[in-house]
Amino acid sequence: AAEETERRMDFYAEPGVSFYVLCPEAACGDNFHVWSESEDCLPFLQLAQDYISSCGKKTLHEILEKVFKSFRPLLGLPDVDDDAFEEYNADVEEEEPEADHQQMGVSQQ
């Protein structure tokens, strides 16, 4: 749902999971604002609120990604740490096939 005069977009997911985003006016220079009228959702919005208040301009897409990441536990989804995933992939790519054989106890004679 969107209220054009208020620059507000409401988002609804699972029952009881809702939040809204107030968009800044183009000429004003304000930041976005996220909030929820559900007390169950408010603690999960802290990550997105911290991100918005940090330095630099943010896009609506970036903010919605942070809200989704924040709401993952509330939605019953596993918490995904992007940095840990990238480090894991880097470790996997650097391994050599011979090292795997030696670790498994396979002799190469």
Number of strands: 4
Number of separate helices: 4
The SSE string, one letter per element, is EEEEHHHH
Are there runs of 5+ residues with pLDDT below 50, and where? 100-105
Structural class: alpha+beta
Q: Which outline best applies?
A: globular
**End-to-end gap:** 69 Å
Portion in helices: 25-40%
Subcellular location: Cytoplasm
Region (Disordered): 86-109
Family: Belongs to the MTURN family.
GO biological process, one term: regulation of signaling
Notes on the protein architecture:
The protein is built from 4 helices and 4 strands; from the N terminus they run E-E-E-E-H-H-H-H. With 109 residues, the protein is of the alpha+beta class. A 4-stranded antiparallel β-sheet has the order 1-2-3-4, with helices on one face. A hairpin with a 5-residue loop joins strand 2 and strand 3. The N and C termini lie far apart (69 Å). Belongs to the MTURN family. One of its GO terms (cellular component) is cytoplasm.
